[in-house]
Amino acid sequence: MKTGFIGIVGRPNVGKSTLLNAILGEKIAITTDKPQTTRNIIRGIYTDIPDGDYDKGTQMIFIDTPGIHKPHSKLGNFMTDSAINTFKEVDVILFLVDDAINKGPGDRYILEMLKEIDTPKILVINKIDTMKPEYFQSIYEDYSKMEVFDDIFGTSALEGKNVDRLISRLGDFLEEGPMYFPEDMVTDHPERFIVSEIIREKILLYLEDEVPHGVAIEIESYKEEPNITRIGAVIYCERKSHKGIIIGKQGKKLKGIGKAARMEIEALVGTKVFLELWVKVKENWRDSDFALSNFGYKEE
Ligand SMILES: Nc1nc2c(ncn2[C@@H]2O[C@H](COP(=O)(O)OP(=O)(O)OP(=O)(O)O)[C@@H](O)[C@H]2O)c(=O)[nH]1
Ligand SMILES: [Mg+2]
After folding, report:
1. Which residue ranges make up each domain of the chain?
2. Ligand 1 atom 6, closest CA
3. From the CA of 35, how far away is ligand 1's center (Å)?
4. CATH topology of domain 2-176
5. Which CATH superfamily groups domain 191-294?
6. Does residue 210 carry a pLDDT above 90?
């Protein structure tokens, strides 16, 4: 069977996690309109065994990474480092962009790093649903001229456009190898990690500005009973004033966050869910090695 690892890298907010979910046909990575949504490496497993014939099968392990940005905290360092570290660990790199190269220094910075690496690279121009064809064409031509990429694709991860063609092209870069994961496995992250991410996603969606970026989730208890899963989680934030904002007037904000998270977690775990949320303050945790490691933001 042909197998391999594929890294998805790029600036924050270009649609990396949306593309991962589109490839898998399932949501395992959280996505929001706010930059720096993804904080950890997220692994998604795509397996295709045509006619049950394993010899003809493929397994691709996609590695969705945090957006590469100029860090302002130790958390930011961790995020950007873990993205850059995947460059050398994968068989193919998908470099995602959603605009022209001259629209900001971010893409150019990543591009310069990619040039130094021998790994096969595919440029993915995402969000084509928002672009006029001539604009897409100009981005395409600017990148083709550089001769850095083995191929260039335009996709809409949101609408699933051209995703199948991309997957099929990726097959050309795989080599004979072992099947790393069982056929029906979509990710190797434990359910409780995904649960903590779903809670964080709802906080990113419900709150503005700096508040959600200073939030970390800790699952304190996780009990699976036959018909119900009981989950207790702590939402850590950086300031007392943030705690008030997260809870909201008469607890309304937190209730909304809890309800939205619960519904999605129920769909994930397949039982009713009882979700209890607490809000605590941990000042400047984004610059504390101890706290970062506690929240799982450390090298694996
Ligand atoms: N119109 C359009 N929007 C998209 C597309 N792909 C992603 N988006 C939107 O872009 C925003 C960012 O998507 P994410 O998948 O969270 O981006 P990301 O690159 O993972 O971001 P970070 O995790 O912060 O690095 C979300 O609002 C998505 O819905 C697309 O093809 N078209
Ligand atoms: Mg992401």
Report:
1. 2-176, 191-294
2. 15
3. 9
4. Rossmann fold (3.40.50)
5. K homology (KH) domain (3.30.300.20)
6. no
Mean pLDDT of the chain: 96
**Protein residue closest via CA to atom 13 of ligand 1:** 15
> Does 191-294 match 2-176 at the fold level?
no
User: pLDDT tens for residues 32-61?
Assistant: 999 999 999 999 999 999 999 999 999 999
pLDDT digits (tens, 9 = 90+) for 117-136: 999 999 999 999 999 999 99
Best of 21, 158, 201, 204 to mutate for ligand 1, by most ligand atoms within 8 A of CB?
Answer: 158
CA atoms of 176 and 217, how far apart (whole Å)? 40
Question: From the CA of 13, how far away is ligand 1's center (Å)?
Answer: 5
* pTM of structure: 0.97
